[in-house]
Structure formats: structure tokens, C-alpha cells
UniProtKB/TrEMBL annotation:
Keyword terms of this UniProt record: Acetoin catabolism
UniProt organism field: Thermopolyspora flexuosa
GO biological process: acetoin catabolic process; epigenetic regulation of gene expression
Protein family membership: Belongs to the histone deacetylase family.
GO molecular function: histone deacetylase activity
Pathway: Ketone degradation; acetoin degradation
Designated name of the protein: Acetoin utilization protein AcuC
Entry-linked CDD domains: HDAC_AcuC_like
InterPro entries, sorted: AcuC (IPR003085), HDACs (IPR000286), His_deacetylse_dom (IPR023801), His_deacetylse_dom_sf (IPR037138), Ureohydrolase_dom_sf (IPR023696)
Residue span(s) of domain Histone deacetylase: 22-312
Coiled coil (UniProt feature): none
Amino acid sequence: MSDSVRVVWDDGLIGYDFGPGHPLAPVRVELTMALAKELGVLDHVELAGCAPATDDDLARVHTREYIEAVKQVSQWGAPDVRHGLGTTDNPAFPGVHEASALVAGATLAAAKAVWTGEAQHALNIAGGLHHAMPATASGFCVYNDPAVAIAWLLENGAERIAYVDVDVHHGDGVQAMFYDDPRVLTISLHESPRTLFPGTGYPSETGAEGTAVNVALPAGCGDAEWLRAFHALVPPLLREFAPQVLVTQHGCDGHELDPLAHLKLSVDGQRAAYAALHRLAHETAGGRWLATGGGGYALVQVVPRAWTHLIAEAAGRPLDPETETPPRWRALVGERMCESAPLSMTDGRNPEFRDISDGYDPADPVDRAIMATRNAIFPLRGLDPLP
């Protein structure tokens, strides 16, 4: 299904590091690239480097004052809590501007490759920092790389961009930056804001002309329920919107092993979501697909496997879930993390689900979440909310 596929990578991307003990440890990206290489996944993509985003690039979505504040923190390592740097979530560190600008530059390079036709699909697994706001850092995110890329696409002729965010946390920063812009459809499937940061992402947040879509799922939701919600909302909305580019954020922190959230997904369920988004990119966006990483804090057991599946899916060579993890990668995990690596690329789950067309159950909290979003959004998009 795939044509040309580019993975944007620079060793400097692991410099986005808030320090020992912080959940967003860059080793998760390092181990992902190592696993993808050992499994031969990277043999079927083009690896390309990138440059840091410039101040002008960043200023498409961030204020100049904020960029200068990050630079000051970057130079001295002193906190600036007014701009969200120096908090528990976003510790200040020397070089934070340079590291953050490189992440944004990698996603921007992927966007340019897709829009110019240099690649049909492009990925930055170190990206997906979706919480950063125009004038403040938030939720481990300093510069909002998906928003930087979307803003560049709009400036360079794109008229309809769809952004689908499957991170367990609401994609609040991207939503906020394009909330009043009908050219950008943002869809976020996340754990309910009643139980998880950032406390936003209710179905009533509908944006311009129904272009902000929020699916707030109850804690404990597993593969079957999550996929039921995804298929009840994402495909019909993408088909109606007909984006020219599909941008996706693939936080894998909805996994049952993730220490920061309360959903119960498996790597198998996440792999099924990647395959669905790949198909939808071809069906609705002419194959133009820009994918990023995102959250994910089970650093060994989940993130490397999930994002290796993502790269393999984008390359059109999905891995057999029963594939064993390579011995050399397991040894690397032991050396880097003093932890036993997973033995295969599956959690042994069969991610089947019932489609919403089978009927709505008002007693089911997931079905109630689905219908709350359909009732809020579908009439605004000229769609029938009833299953």
C-alpha cells in the first residue's frame, strides 16, 4: 500500500532530555530505532536528517516572547515558571531550546517531504509534543512540533488538514492552536479529562464548524472498546472532511502497562489502530501521511515495540505479531536499562471489536462516550449521529 516512506532521524533527537527520573526518557526513542534496525524495518524506508526549526518556523504557532524565554532558559538552565519551564513536568535544562527546536525541525522536515511529494509517508517518532501552548510549556512539551508542521502546510497551500491524536492524553495544544480554523480538523481519542491530565477534551469542545472532535473514554477501556470508538468516529469524519494531508500523533501511553494513565490497550490493539490510519491516509488524503510519536512511559515493554510496528506499517511491511525480538536488542535493553526485554512483538491479544452499527447500548460507558461525541459533532458536519 505504501510508496516512498521517509523516517526523519538525527542522533541529536535524544538530547530532548529532562534528566534522570523524568518519565519522558529519551532512551525510549533510542531503543525504538535500535529495534526497528535489528528487525530490518529500517531497510525499507529512507532515513533522512533534519535541521532545527528556526525562530520563524516556531513563531507560526508560538509567541516570539515565549521563544526568547526558552532561549534564556536554554542558555543558563535557570527556571522560568511563568513560561512553564522549571516545573516538575518541564524541568529547565541547558540546551532546552536547541533540543526542542530539533524535534520541531524533524516533524517539519517530514511535513515538507509529504507535501512536496518527496515521500508519500513520513515519520518523526521523537515528535508528537502536543501539549505545548503558544506561550508556555506544558505536559513534557516545550515546542508543539505537530502544530509547527500543520502551520507550515497551511502557509504553503494546504487547505484541509486532518490531525488524529491517539495519545491517552488530550491533544490540547494542537486543538488550541487551530480551534477557530476550519481548515484543520483535530480528532483526539483520550482518557476522560475527569481522571487524567490535562483536564480538557470534552465532547462539547467543538471548534470552528465542528472541526474539534473529542472522544473522552472511561478509565479501564481496552482494545475492543477503544477500537469501537475509533471506528465509530474517525473514518466517517475523515471521509467527510477529505483532508489533503493526514497528520497523526501516536502516543502509546494508552497501554495497560503505562504508569501514567488508566486505559488497558495492548500493543496488538495499537497496531490495529496504526493499520486503520494507514488505510485512511490512502482512502481520504491521497496517501499523504505524516506520523509522529508522542507519549509512552513503559520505556522498554511498550514504546519500542509499538513504534517499530508503526514504522513497519507505514513502510507497507507490517510485522507478524509473533515475531521474536532479536537477541542483540534484548542484550542492549539489559545493558541500558537493567531490565528484561519483551520476547516478541505481541501481547498475545486479538484486537477484535463490535462496530457501532451493531447497535448502541446506553448502559455502556464507552457507547455513551461515543454518542456524546457523535451528537456534538456529526450534525455540525452534516452527518447523521445515529448508528
